[in-house]
UniProtKB/TrEMBL annotation:
InterPro entries, A to Z: Nucleotide-diphossugar_trans (IPR029044), Trfase_1_rSAM/seldom-assoc (IPR018641)
UniProt protein name: Glycosyltransferase
Membrane-spanning parts: none
Top-level taxon in the UniProt lineage: Bacteria
UniProt cross-references to PANTHER family, sorted A to Z: GLYCOSYLTRANSFERASE (PTHR36529:SF1), SLL1095 PROTEIN (PTHR36529)
Amino acid sequence: MLAIYILFDDTTNVSTAVSFENADMPHPSSDLTLGIMAKYWTVGKVKTRLGHSIGMNAAAEIHREFVLRLCRQLAAVQSRRVLAIAPDSDGARLREQPELAAWEIIPQGDGDLGDRMSRFFQTQLGFQSQRSVESQRDTSSRETPASRVILIGADCPLLGESDIANAAQQLETHDIVLGPAIDGGYYLIGFRGPWSDRFGRLFHEMPWSSSDVFAITKQRAEETQLSLAVLPENEDIDTIECLDRLRDHLNQSRLENRSLAEFADRIDTILSHNPAS
């Protein structure tokens, strides 16, 4: 199966069809789309705050581990699974990663974080709506159109199926679901379709680098009379202090959870090979 994604540029009124998808990948039958938005692990381009403490090479390797772990852990979620990657040109480099076999890979496109997130939701909700129209013409390929779309980043590597299931359940009765991060941002956002222009207000002119992102997003949702569900707080792993807390948690869970033990070992190996750590 080959899906074509339409990226619309408001400045030129031009739509571009692109796809990095594995044509042989099965398409889950579900009304849910799960997305991960992440950067490719180029040294010096990812986790630079952490890199100042452990070295940029180690920071890039840590980021890679986070992305691939999330893709492994969430591969069984009954949904369409989409990895939105930046820069756009690096999407093709991910095809050989076995952890990504269950994921469609698409480019994030241009713009700031808000532009790219807004485009992702519009594309996914709009794409599903178009599939619904097309399936009505061909009943032999009828599928249930997705009405819920959830997007996470790659900074909370311990997110699992239960977290996504909880968020998806909240979207049964709410327009928006948010997972607040300790630093004032959010690690998860989801919408119940169809797309509304009111959703776009949550991404427009947002101070993304500040600690007010969650509070402003929540306020805007309330101002536009969108029903909002809030998930438990979580921590983005962006600094050495956050990484130390993550490692402590992993070591405490080592005996009970083999997957976490292996994850801890990979992080320890990366740090042991880097003089700055």
